[in-house]
Amino acid sequence: MMLYGLAGLGVIVVIGLAYYAGQTLSQLNAQKTRIALAKQKQYEVRVERVNNIMQSVHTIALAVEQQQCDLCEGVIRLTNLLDALPLNPAPKFMDIYPNIYTLHTKIDHYPTHDARNALSKKERHQQDLEREAIAATFESAIISEVVQLRTYHPTI
């Protein structure tokens, strides 16, 4: 009699453990599905961000090429956008577009926005002349780089 009781208890324990294992497996599968969907959504958001940034890059590059945009302003905007691209591994844009990045390095210490507005007219004019002189030395090289940049489409 006691043997039957122990066997019955053993069956109940095995059934309980099987049920628990089934529930745990079900939860694991649901979690894997949620993770896969989250990764897919994350990828789609990243692709959209890259496409939006590249649309801006191509527009600014065209404006610089057609001289509708100040060279220095275009370079600042382009380098900031290229550096903001969520690519992994990140391309070495400084090596790909050396003149754009060199000009940016040479002019990035000049004040902008409110700091520029706080300068006197004479100081602003002097800085504009300096900036234009620096930009003039890079103009033709940067124009050829923005033409190249307009055809750049990163792989994600």
Give a brief rundown of this model.
The protein is mainly alpha-helical and 156 residues long. The chain has helices at 2-65, 71-84, 93-96, 98-107, 113-117, 121-149.
Sequence of secondary-structure elements: HHHHHH
**Count of distinct structural domains:** 1
Taking the alpha carbons of the first and last residues, their distance comes to 69 Å
Largest sheet: none
Using the CA coordinates, give the radius of gyration.
30 Å
| SS class | mainly alpha
Into which percentage range does the β-strand content fall? under 5%
Average pLDDT level: 94
Structure annotation, total helices: 6
Query: Which consecutive residue ranges, at least 5 long each, have pLDDT under 50?
Result: none
Count of DSSP strands = 0
How much helicity do the residues have?
A: over 70%
Shape: rod-shaped
Overall description:
The chain is mainly alpha-helical. The protein has helices at 2-65, 71-84, 93-96, 98-107, 113-117, 121-149. The chain is rod-shaped, with a radius of gyration of 30 Å. The N and C termini lie far apart (69 Å). The chain has 6 helices and no strands. The longest helix is centred in the N-terminal third of the chain and has 64 residues, at 2-65. It has one domain. Helix 1 packs across helix 6 (121-149) and helix 2 crosses helix 4 (98-107).
